[in-house]
Amino acid sequence: MQSRTGFDRLLALFTVPDDDPDLSLAQFRAFSKQIPLLYAILVINTLAVSYTFSAFAPPMLSVGLPVLLSAVCALRCVWWYRQRDVPVAAAEAIRQLRRTQRLAFLLAAGFTAWGLALYPYGDAYARGHVSFYMSITVIGCILCLMHLRSAAIVVTLVVLTPYSIFLLYGGEPTQGAIAVNVVLVAAAMMRILFVNYRDFADLIVSRRELVAEQSATRALSDENFRIANLDALTDLPNRRRFFKDVDTVFGRDPDGPPLAVGIIDLDGFKPINDTFGHTTGDRVLTEVAGRLAAVCEGFRAADATVYRLGGDEFGLLVTGRADRDTLETLCRTIVEAVRRPYPVATTQAMIGCSIGYALRAKCRATALGLYECADYALYHAKRHHRGAAVQFTDEHEAQIRAQSLLEQTLQAAELCKELTLVFQPIVHLDDGRVAAFEALARWSSPVLGAVSPGSFIPVAERIGLIGTITRVLLGKALEAARGWPEEIGLSFNLSTHDICTAEGALRLVALVREGGVAPSRIAFEITETSVATDFDQAQRTMEMLKALGCKISLDDFGTGYSSLTYVHRFPLDCIKIDRSFVADVEDNALARQLVGSLAGMTADLGLTSVVEGVETDAQRRILAGLGCDMAQGYLFARPMPAEAVAAFLGGSRGTAVGGS
């Protein structure tokens, strides 16, 4: 039994083991990187000997045979070079290693036989070259075959055994000494080979054990990573992952290949949440996420990834071919996908999306700057191209610089001194009597000159100055209204901050109580977009104002996605029909029908209708015939300063304003 065990151990030295797949794969990967060098050494040394003996030995022996053997080595070298990055299974690795060992035996025997056959033909120097060739080549082979121990042993024995015997018994004494020297060096090299192979095998075992130890903790770590980087509702990468990926891709090479960042914001999603509840809203968001992911996965022109940034906002990261044409195609596909109907309760809901995107080549040289450019492009899309995609351009960059100057100037402004009001009358269509005046803000800056409300109000909301502006302007409006006749009302526009924050609501209540004007004369105007930030708080604010006796008007009616939702749920007194319906009411039968329907609905709800933007007497007559209650526009009067109101009222007494 003991002898059998020893024989098995001896046999194991000459075989490729198959009991450890990890070791076999590691041997194959290491060996595939070293074998080209082995063949290169063998071919170069062989051709050198061939050249030396070309003058002594027959051509077939000195040239033909070494060229044939070198060609075999070259072919094997090419094959192994191609396998260096090709993944293989453990069984295939073992099969290739065993084939290599068999081939190593054949090549070692062939080269050794060739070298010994050449030996008698040369002179002393040429024979010395053969000895050098045998010794240095076998040492090189041992080093290159160290990860395939069995092949290294086979090659060493096949080469050195006949070589040493030949030189010891058939050569000169010097050659015999060289043979002994080479055998001793080879023995030392084999000792090193055994130690390195054992360490290599131990390393593979240790690595496997380490992987096993880490697998349990990695599973927990992976789960934590997934939770930290995936959105819980949609399973899309979340906001944290979005900014990390943008930083990573941008940081690889700031001047590298095309890169684009986009922000997708849903249009009309908030009313679905408000009407059908958050559970239904979550289902719609999940469906939107699925559609966006499907579009990105199926888009072949560039690599696109979608993220959920929060609420109804999604992020987009595009790499590869991120040029304008590609991005326009991708965004158009996204818009079309989002527009498809969504099953909601027993009906279907329709929403849209607006997209802002920015290309690295067009924007600031930081990842955050790229995101900010996309965010500004989205802001521009929401204001001017709702339901479409907008790319950040040089014009937007100029607008940002202008807005930065506007912000700085507004923050440094003496608001009480620089802010003023003008007033535009709202008149009864039946008899032309003035019912109220709408207060319109004006800012005359000593630095920028006259700045329109459409420019400075959004900036004031963004930088937190809108509360101060409301306090200043409402105070001035109430001061002006105190001098008007009691039957003349005041209409005042509110911002998002005024109605969607508790602080803004309390400020409004305090100003009305201290203003010296009967609350029943005051109508506060709101818009659909201004209440979208916090629907519930906006409703509470309006109920507080109604409790004081103030009126509530819904401005720009018909321009949003779900005005009827607000009409149904808010304590309204008046609906202001947007000027876009009036522009072609004289020539467009559909426009007349729409306005008539809106006026009829308003009357059925017990509300007052006011039509904006009336500029011709023909429009006035048509609107009156359609049942509209009141109107305002240039036909009746342009906005006027406070001191002109008294004269205007005096001139309009007894005469229908804007008509006969």
UniProtKB/TrEMBL annotation:
The keyword Transmembrane helix applies. Signal peptide: none annotated. Keywords: Membrane, Transmembrane, Transmembrane helix. The chain crosses the membrane at residues 37-57, 63-82, 103-122. SMART domains: EAL, GGDEF. PROSITE patterns: EAL (PS50883), GGDEF (PS50887). NCBIfam families: GGDEF. This is Diguanylate cyclase/phosphodiesterase. The lineage of its organism: Bacteria, Pseudomonadati, Pseudomonadota, Alphaproteobacteria, Hyphomicrobiales.
